[in-house]
């Protein structure tokens, strides 16, 4: 027999009466008296001569215990189809033969013809089985030493909490969009369970989901983005037979940008009545921001930082990490070059992750005056503390000179806002408010975008341009004045 011939036969385990010799295919009970196969005795086999090994050893593809002649022929044809993929190339035919023999010896199903065809087309050794998704994700993340720590922590969380538990045991070349969609369906089922338990009248049920959070649509999109990035590298890998990034074909509802909503009088009244917060991103009116800063003045060690965030829109980590070395009060400018990133409760100091994030911000006279007063106060505190002062270098420090933890700053912000009787916003909402204030004051959107560290003016304008109702009201009145034939001021 050559490599593309083979045979299908029936045999059994009977032995001769005299010598105990195995009868195999010669057992008379394999056929009935009329010559037809006996369906109640023996089982079906196929056998095919394979190309010799690299060491020149002869070998066969041979398998028994099959239920029917049709099944044996089907598997024999499958083996022939796999061998035909080599198209007479001896090295490739040896690889395919090794793959077939390994599957038969390991009692595993034969690989699919299309799967082997893809691996041959990708130019990879067909004998090397592609890794599981879980293994590939870890290899992929470990192979990116230059990732920012915050980005690495985000990727690791997605991989550890969602991708590996749901997809980790699927081979990477067999992963399909439906697998990922089933994962997101399971995440949504968990969300529903958490919400139902929170609404339960049984305290034990409520306690069972304490600490568990609902996974938002935006988080699902970020999980998908992590998988898409990992599979993009898999597609580019010369060792993997993957030509399509299936994560790009996963269907998730669109995730519109969360535009800030201002705490108008009507919204505040509703909040005071039943605690309703109308949006995920809320900002204060200028008057509410002034109220907050008035109360924050009582907290000497925090007020200058909160003022700077409220006026110039620094991110929390940028304000906490701002060093005096990058603060030029004579010029009225600060250079944003570092930030403190919180990973769980640990912190690291890094550079802003985008080029736009590394920027120079111009300070107004009032802010310069506040920072100068703060610097004098800090120097006096340092002299009084003497050796107990921790020389750390940031602009904003605690009473012993040590830097603030970002989480502590957020906690103090919420305490002060609550004490002031203000409706709730996050500390990041103070940054959103600074952007809206700047645009409402007529500052050019290019300047606002640059000082906030946005990559494009489109993002700034689309997100913040019409936050304050007073601005929209003024625009509407200006249009009405034009229709009445009245002059409209340039301001």
UniProtKB/TrEMBL annotation:
Residues 131-235 form the Core-binding (CB) domain. Residues 279-477 form the Tyr recombinase domain. InterPro entries: CB, DNA_brk_join_enz, Integrase-like_cat_sf, Integrase_catalytic, Integrase_recombinase_N, Tyrosine_recombinase_XerCD. The keyword NADP does not apply. Pfam families: Phage_integrase. The keyword Lipid biosynthesis does not apply. Keywords: DNA recombination, DNA-binding. GO terms for biological process: DNA integration; DNA recombination. One of its GO terms (molecular function) is DNA binding. This is Integrase. It comes from Nocardiopsis sinuspersici. The lineage of its organism: Bacteria, Bacillati, Actinomycetota, Actinomycetes, Streptosporangiales.
């Amino acid at each position: 027999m050559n490599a593309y011939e083979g045979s299908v036969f029936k045999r059994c385990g009977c032995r001769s009466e005299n010598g105990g010799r195995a009868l195999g295919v010669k057992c008379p009970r394999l056929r009935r008296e009329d010559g037809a196969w006996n369906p109640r005795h023996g089982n079906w086999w196929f056998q095919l001569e394979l190309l010799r090994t690299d060491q020149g050893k002869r070998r066969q593809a041979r398998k028994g215990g099959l239920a029917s002649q049709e099944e044996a022929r089907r598997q024999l044809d499958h083996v022939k189809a796999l061998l035909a993929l080599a198209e007479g190339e001896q090295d490739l035919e040896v690889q395919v033969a090794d793959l077939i023999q390994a599957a038969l010896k390991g009692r595993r199903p034969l690989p699919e013809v299309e799967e082997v065809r893809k691996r041959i087309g990708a130019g990879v050794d067909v004998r090397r089985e592609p890794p599981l998704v879980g293994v590939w994700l870890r290899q992929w993340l470990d192979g990116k030493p230059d990732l920012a720590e915050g980005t690495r922590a985000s990727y690791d969380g997605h991989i550890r909490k969602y991708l590996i538990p749901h997809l980790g045991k699927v081979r990477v070349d067999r992963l399909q969009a439906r697998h990922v969609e089933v994962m997101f369906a399971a995440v949504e089922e968990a969300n529903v369970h958490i919400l139902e338990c929170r609404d339960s009248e049984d305290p034990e049920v409520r306690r069972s989901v304490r600490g568990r959070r609902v996974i938002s649509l935006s988080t699902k999109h970020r999980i998908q983005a992590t998988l898409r990035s990992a599979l993009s590298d898999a597609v580019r890998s010369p060792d993997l037979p993957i030509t399509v990034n299936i994560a790009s074909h996963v269907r998730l509802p669109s995730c519109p940008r969360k535009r800030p909503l201002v705490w108008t009088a009507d919204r505040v009244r509703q909040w005071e009545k039943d605690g309703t917060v109308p949006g995920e991103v809320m900002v204060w009116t200028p008057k509410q921001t002034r109220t907050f800063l008035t109360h924050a003045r009582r907290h000497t060690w925090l007020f200058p930082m909160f003022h700077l965030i409220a006026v110039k829109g620094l991110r929390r980590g940028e304000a906490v990490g701002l060093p005096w070395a990058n603060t030029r009060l004579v010029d009225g400018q600060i250079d944003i070059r570092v930030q403190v990133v919180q990973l769980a409760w640990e912190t690291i100091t890094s550079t802003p992750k985008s080029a736009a994030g590394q920027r120079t911000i111009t300070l107004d006279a009032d802010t310069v005056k506040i920072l100068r007063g703060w610097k004098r106060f800090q120097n006096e505190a340092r002299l009084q503390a003497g050796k107990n002062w921790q020389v750390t270098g940031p602009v904003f420090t605690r009473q012993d000179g040590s830097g603030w933890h970002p989480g502590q700053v957020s906690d103090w912000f919420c305490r002060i806002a609550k004490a002031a009787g203000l409706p709730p916003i996050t500390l990041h909402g103070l940054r959103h408010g600074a952007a809206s204030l700047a645009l409402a004051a007529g500052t050019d959107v290019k300047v606002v975008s640059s000082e906030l560290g946005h990559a494009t003016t489109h993002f700034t304008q689309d997100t913040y341009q019409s936050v304050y109702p007073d601005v929209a009201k003024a625009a509407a009145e200006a249009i009405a004045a034009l229709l009445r034939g009245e002059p409209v001021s340039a301001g």
